[in-house]
Amino acid sequence: MNDDVRNIVLGVIAAGLSASLGWLARTYLWKRKLRRKQAFFGLPDHSESLLVVNRDAGSPDLAVHRYDVFALLELAALIKDCNAHADVITQDAARQGFGERTEFCVGGPGSNRRMAAHMQAMLPGVRVNVDPEPGPDRLAFQIGTDRHRMQPGLAEYVLLARLTAAQQGPSRPVFLFCGQRAITNQAATRYLARNHERLYRKHGDNSFALLLKVVNSQAYGPDVVELVADVTRAAQTPLPEGATRTTHRAS
């Protein structure tokens, strides 16, 4: 074998090794990213999850608002990415306990009794005005001593929460998407899909509750979302009797 042939052979071998190492590195990073995503959502390979859908509060029928359907589709894509499976059930058919399966619960307490139960049990510092009568406080959020009103189509709020029952041992999380309107539920699911890596780095496996504001949904749909505050502590602290409320008008 002369020098030229030997150099060609060595070059081919070096290129093959480099490609193999690059493939192994990419595969390792992809698997690491997947495992972190599965850990955050509580969805290991082939696990089961629950999508709890509300009803359209503005419809006399047992219908689901189209924006809530869009929210469910985005959550279904996240679940599939984790190599997991999902069952879709209505809010009045959910009978399982908390922590048995990862749960994604969509809709406010006025249209989703499962959401109302979760908030009463785990977010005692949050109140949602579900009075059907029109008024400035209709669908307003009270979190701690702060009250957040909405301006339909211009500025609306949604609560995004990841909750666990760590005191009862290992359990799967429940994710809450509690919005003042259906489009805000979709906005929260989209926010979660875009920011789950950052949220995992910040919160790990711990519970959290974030107040988001959807800006000008009549023009931008569910795409423009601002983080108002991390309200975990206030949301998990029971409201005191006769608490003074500070009103924040959406702007």
From TrEMBL:
The chain crosses the membrane at residues 6-29. Keywords: Membrane, Transmembrane, Transmembrane helix. It comes from the Bacteria. This is Secreted protein.
